Amino acid sequence: MIALRPGRKLPRGRDPLRMLLSSTPWRATGYLAGYLVAGPVLFAVAALAVALGLVFMQLTVTVALTVGSAWVVRCCAQVERGRAVLVDEPIPYAYREPGKPGLVGQFKARCGDPVTFRDIACLVLLFPFLLVLDLLALAVWLGLLAGVTLPLWFWSIDSPKSDGGRGTGPWLGGPGHGAPGVRIDNWPAALITAALCLALLLYAAYLVVAAARLHLTVAHTLLRPPPDPLARAKRILTEPGPLALVSHGPLPGLTLSEGHSS
């Protein structure tokens, strides 16, 4: 089971009312809504860069353009990493440094770096999944928000009546949707609908926050540096061990002659 990354600015709230009144669901809303704008742009730019890079890779004279395509993908990934600041700290990154100077070294470092392929997976391959996830969560959340504010604007909606005429108030289902529905055309109906939407909104806050956590988890899994298999060994070598407690000189309070006297 995947543990969702909670995010530094997405604390878990046990009280639904406190959760709704906190900044947590609104930060999650901004994070998800931002992807609806930035996600398609990043997908289009990254997908075009990958396609052009595959074409340029077939020709030796276009090595510089292939390197440029990888650089464009990296820039798009940096935008997605920076967006995480809305709900967490920016996602860290680490790319392979060129082993040799010149275009050949740049080509091997950028096009052969596994991090570049992880960037492509996040920006291009998983774009449909992340877009649908954010759209569904925001549709439920924003739809219930609109229902809560229904008494403020239901009277301004001009909608058809069931008898073919025109009247005031929106339909929930009803004409034009192929299913029976309810028409909100008076204050009592609008207030009852708003109360029901508010009760559901208390728990929809958990839905939008969970969607933001899942999106953040996917971004962290693919865009952050992969774990170093030698990290534990390096930490052991750098940390002080038991031998560091042994003094390399004579004990305090003893002279050199006293320390060697029999």
Layout: helices, strands, pairs:
Blueprint: H1 16-21, H2 24-56, H3 63-83, H4 103-111, H5 114-125, H6 127-148, H7 150-153, E1 158-160, E2 166-168, E3 171-174, E4 179-183, H8 187-223, H9 231-238, H10 256-260
Antiparallel strand pairs: 1-2, 3-4
Helix pairs in contact: 2-3, 2-6, 2-8, 3-4, 3-5, 5-8, 6-8
What does this molecule look like?
- There is one protein chain.
- The protein starts with 15 loop residues before the first helix and ends with a helix.
- It has 262 residues and is mainly alpha-helical.
- The chain has 10 helices and 4 strands.
- It is elongated, with a radius of gyration of 29 Å.
- Strands 1-2 form a two-stranded antiparallel ribbon. Strands 3-4 form a two-stranded antiparallel ribbon.
- It has one domain (16-223).
- InterPro entries: Put_sensor_dom (IPR025828).
